[in-house]
Amino acid sequence: MCYIAPRKSALKAIAVSSKDEFEAYYSAEPTPQPVKLSPELSALDLMYAYYDAA
Questions:
Q1: Helix, strand, or coil here: 11?
Q2: Which of 32, 15, 34, 33 is nearest to 23 (CA)?
Q3: Quick check: 48 pLDDT over 60?
Q4: Tens of pLDDT, residues 17-35
Q5: Cα Rg for the chain, rounded, in angstroms?
């Protein structure tokens, strides 16, 4: 017995992909999130930076 897999129509595939692109475009964040500031440097970080620069 031979099994033939059902095929999606090309039009339906195009409609699904365009819907996905539409959702991806309009569900994106309207504005990018601000970059988080780096934490304060500790004395140990400053010491390592000083010795690395020397």
A1: helix
A2: 15
A3: yes
A4: 555 666 666 666 666 666 6
A5: 27
In the numeric block, the tokens 């595939």 are attached to 13
Placement of tokens 């994106």 in the chain: 28
Entry pTM? 0.27
What local confidence, expressed as pLDDT, does residue 40 receive?
79
Own/partner contacts of 43-48, CB < 8 Å, gap of 24 or more, are none
- d(CA 3, CA 44) in angstroms, rounded, equals 69
Q: How many Å apart are CA 53 and CA 47, to the nearest integer?
A: 10
Cα 15 to Cα 28: distance, rounded to the nearest angstrom: 20
Looking up tokens 């309207």, which residue turns up? Answer: 30
Q: What is the C-alpha to C-alpha distance for residues 11 and 14, in angstroms, rounded to an integer?
A: 5
